[in-house]
Amino acid sequence: MTEVAGARTVRAGARWMSLFTLAWLAIWTVQLTPVQLLLPLQLDTPEDDWIRGVVSSGLVLGIGGLAGIIAGPAAGALSDRAAAGRHRRRPWAVGGALFTAACLALTGYAENPWTVGAGWVGVSIGVAVSSAAFTALIADQLPTTQRGAASAAVGSSQAVGIVVGAGLVVLLGLGIHEGYLLLAGVIAVVGTTTALLLPDPPTTEALRPKQIGRRRLASLRDRDFAWMLSGRLMTNVGNALGTALFLFFLLHGLGQPSAVAQDNLLLLIVVYTVFVVIASVVTGIVSDRTGNRRTLTVAATVVQAASGVAIALVPTFEMTMVAAALMGLGYGAFSTVGLAFVADLLPDEQDHARDLGIVNVTAALGQLIGPVLGAGLVALVGGFWLVFVAAAVLSLVGGLLTAFARQPVRTS
Fold first, then answer.
1. CA 52 to CA 297: how far, in whole Å?
2. 149, 248 Cβ separation under 8 angstroms
3. How far is Cα 39 from Cα 347, in angstroms, rounded to an integer?
4. This model's pTM is above 0.85
5. What residues contact 48, with CB distance under 8 A and at least 6 apart?
6. Which is more confident, 215 or 355?
7. Interval 129-153 mean pLDDT
8. In angstroms, rounded to a whole number, what is the distance separating the alpha carbons of residues 100 and 175?
9. Residue 6 pLDDT more than 50?
10. Over the range 46-66, which residues count as b (16 or more CB within 10 Å of their CB) and which as e?
11. How many other CB atoms are found less than 10 A from the CB of residue 364?
12. 3-state DSSP call for residue 5?
């Protein structure tokens, strides 16, 4: 079990890692299953007006991403400032999970883009709040030699979560309402249970941020932290471009019937997941052993870019399978090693949750910018090829920006 004493950390045991992984599995399941499956089904429009459905989906996801951008860092900053003797992370993790569950249930009964958007804003806020609390545990409680492993848990859970959620909905034949209710139950039970079981020692006055002599958002003035953030933003936008419109691409880019497209989407998700898990585990271990996280992070963005190039050049279902594998390899490595890298670069231990909330904003911004930009590109050219080209370009830009951040000297 991890123990915390001031800023000191010791190695976490299997129980800590298992609970942490389970928490993220629940978070990713309830966040990404609607993005990949339920929201497109809710917002799809007739064949002769399908672009309107794509645009509606992009706007809903974009507005939700904006809400998460505000909620995540705000919740993180407030948890950093918990009074001495109180828990910093647990109340926010539990509250975010329960709020997410309630909003998922409401979204399931929404019947037009406006009410769907309102419900999804609530889901995005709840997910951002709980994510900020759970992410802070990496920097709060783990030494640098375990941050890659914990980040691998986050990255691999992201891919597995899509399979778990979409698989249950498709294989059980659940409708939209039932799918959302299932997800609400998952986050309510698993999210709150793991938050209660994971350690969260009461804070001390020494760990509370000091206001005197501190500049507001000083972390953003740290050169390396800023480079890493900008690189994560570009790469996350590239990933969102390459994945958020997959169901629409199968339906209207490849002309597949709805039932076939749903089955094939699940198959693509499984392929993506397998390679995300492989990349997450391998690169997490390698980065912990070598400490060279920057090189691995940059290389991952190149692999992700290759997926966009492949599908843009050969827009077939078979090549889409190959692209899903490449995307899984690239994003699995990037999300794992990149998160450990940014945890190593945190400039101030007293603002862990706030700064990691800002880090999570890059993913939320990706979910905001990616679908909106993708919808605009589809509307511009009447197809999907430009979406995948843009995904490749932005992934490479993300790698270039990340390369400007220094590789910290390992201290433990």
1. 36
2. no
3. 38
4. no
5. none
6. 355
7. 81
8. 20
9. no
10. eeeeeebbbbbbbbbbbbbbb
11. 26
12. strand
Q: Is the Cβ–Cβ distance between 353 and 77 less than 8 Å?
A: yes
Residue-averaged pLDDT of the chain: 82
**Identity of the amino acid at 352:** H
Burial of 380 (0-12, 13-18, 19+ CB in 10 A): exposed
Cα separation, 266 vs 270, whole angstroms: 6
Give the pLDDT confidence score for residue 59 in this predicted structure.
76
* Mean pLDDT to the nearest integer, 298-323: 93
Which residues touch 56 (CB under 8 Å, ≥6 apart)?
43, 45, 113
DSSP codes, 116-130 = HHHHHHHHHHHHHHH
**Range in 35-39, 88-92, 241-245, 347-351 the model is least confident about:** 347-351
How many secondary structure helices (H) and strands (E) does the chain include? Answer: 15, 2
The stretch 25-46 carries a mean pLDDT of 83
Residue whose structure tokens are 């020494």: 206
- Letter for the amino acid at 150? A
**318 burial level (CB within 10 Å; 0-12, 13-18, 19+):** exposed
Q: Higher model confidence: residue 130 or residue 141?
A: 130
Residue keyed to tokens 């299953």: 33
Q: Is the Cβ–Cβ distance between 215 and 280 less than 8 Å?
A: no
